[in-house]
Structures are given as C-alpha cells and as structure tokens.
Amino acid sequence: MKKGLRRYAAAILMGMVFLALIIIFPDYREKAGKSLLGQLGTVALVLPPIFILLGLLDVWVPREKMIRILGEGSSVKGALVAFLLGSFAAGPLYGAFPFAAVLLKKGASVFNVMIFLGAWSTTKLPMLLFEISALGLRFALSRLAIDIVAIVFIALLVKRSFHEDDIRRLQTQIP
Q1: Which of 81, 106, 112, 130 pairs as cysteine with 66 (C-beta 3.0–4.6 A)?
Q2: What single DSSP character describes residue 74?
Q3: 62, 151, 164, 73: which is closest to 105 by C-alpha?
Q4: Which sequence spans correspond to the domains of the chain?
Q5: Predicted local distance difference test score (pLDDT) of residue 1
C-alpha cells in the first residue's frame, strides 16, 4: 500500500491541488471540469491502442533481436532505426513513454531510447510536410538538421549521466 502511494504521490498531489484550486476559484470550476474531462477522454482513446501494440511488441519481438537491433552494440544502425521509429510514430508524446519503457525492458540502449523519444517529440513526418508547405523547404530542413544534432547531443548527455548499474536497475523495475 505504501509503495503504491509513493509511486503515485505526484498524481495524488496534483489531484489535491486541482481540487483546492476549484474550491478557491469557483468561477473556473465548470471550465476546469470540462477541460479535465476532455483530456481524460483523449487519453482514454489514445492509450489503449498503444498498450495493445506494446503488448504485441513485448510478446512477438524476442529480447535478443531487440538487443541486436537497438542494443549497445547496434551503433549508427540502431540510432537510425530508433530515429525512424520515433519519426513515423503516431500519437502524442505521452504515448512514447510506455513504448520507451518496453524498449528499455527488451534491451535497447539508453542512447537509442533517447533518440527514439527525441524523434517522437520533434521530427514527426506530418509536421515536416506541413512545414515544407507552409514555411518552405529551406526552413523545414534547417529545423530538422538542428533537431537531429540536438537529439544526438541530448542522447549522448543522458547516456553518459547514467551508470551501468542504474540502467540495469531501471530495466528490472519496468513491469
């Protein structure tokens, strides 16, 4: 029971803050309630398909194959696969984190998981196509190049900040 409370302490705290704010500011109660219900509805529509796909990935892709493709020794090929997975993925960023957890659990390197998360958050293909049509090819490709450099830099920084024991502990904590 205590472990569960600790695990969800931030969510419980934010719920309490939300309740306190709608009590203190009753004029915003209806708008806040509608917004909350709308966001919960969106999450309820997005997360189930992601979890189904994650379950299939977990069952269908053997750990050895994932290590070979995205593990520590995968070099540039693994980073490219992680980048493409993130760029072609659909859905909001909060959908990427369960996927990243499964990748870590299956033996993907922290570097490649960070590349995946960075690509998911900044280099979506539909966004690139929109930028090309709205802002021009030069702008879109410039932004993409800057994003790729930043993603690699951040992934290297995160990888170097983790100790190997921390990574193993993290991988074993993922359900």
Answers
A1: 106
A2: G
A3: 62
A4: 1-46, 61-173
A5: 65
Report the sign of the C-alpha dihedral through residues 69, 71, 74, 76, in that order: positive
Contact residues for 113 (Cβ-Cβ < 8 A; gap 6+): 70, 82, 100, 103, 104
In the chain, which residue ranges form alpha helices assigned H by DSSP? 2-7, 9-24, 29-60, 63-70, 75-88, 96-105, 110-122, 125-135, 137-161, 164-173
pLDDT band at 173 (very low <50, low <70, confident <90, very high): confident
Average pLDDT over residues 86-108: 87
Q: Is the pLDDT of residue 5 over 80?
A: no
Print burial letters for 24-36: b (CB count within 10 Å at least 16), e (below 16): eeeeeeeeeeeee
The predicted model scores a pTM of 0.78
